[in-house]
Amino acid sequence: MAKSTKLGDGELEVMQAIWDAGEPVTASGILEKVQQKRTWGLSTLMTVLGRLIEKGYLECDKSTRTNIYSAKIEERDYKKKEGRSFLEKMYGNSISDFISCLYDGKNLSKEEISELKHFIENVGKEE
Predict the structure, then answer these.
(1) How many CB atoms are closer than 10 A to CB 23?
(2) Residue 29: phi, psi to the nearest 5?
(3) Cα–Cα distance between 88 and 4 in angstroms, integer?
(4) Rounded to whole angstroms, how far apart are CA atoms 21 and 15?
(5) Angle at Cα 35 formed by Cα 33 and Cα 41, nearest 5°?
(6) CATH at 59
(7) In angstroms, rounded to a whole number, what is the distance separating the alpha carbons of residues 68 and 79?
(8) Count of domains in the chain?
(9) What is the pLDDT of residues 87-116, one digit of tens each?
(10) For residue range 65-74, what is the model confidence (pLDDT) as tens digits?
(11) Which of 3, 23, 26, 48 could form a disulfide with 56 if both were Cys (CB 3.0 to 4.6 A apart)?
(12) Which residue has the higher pLDDT, 99 or 38?
């Protein structure tokens, strides 16, 4: 895994753009995607890309005229680690406390509750 596991909001948006691309991508391709949410210029993006390389999240192929960036960590792996960290820090590793908080806050729709029930009923059945 990467040296530093925590990503800032902007770094996460850049990683999301790269993961969404599903293949190595140029800085201009990343910038186009990120500019849907942020008013960054190319120099800001290049700073963030440099940080992500330094943290071990990205690699850059410089063998052509245009640098090509690709993720060194899979999106699912990052989300698993950060999800576990969030659950541990905020809810003392209690999934029931987390779900209870969402439910009490009326943050779960009937569809989401149904999806959650379906997930719980089927967890482990794939084995």
Answers:
(1) 8
(2) -65, -40
(3) 18
(4) 10
(5) 120
(6) 1.10.10.10
(7) 24
(8) 2
(9) 999 999 898 888 888 778 677 888 988 898
(10) 999 999 999 9
(11) 3
(12) 38
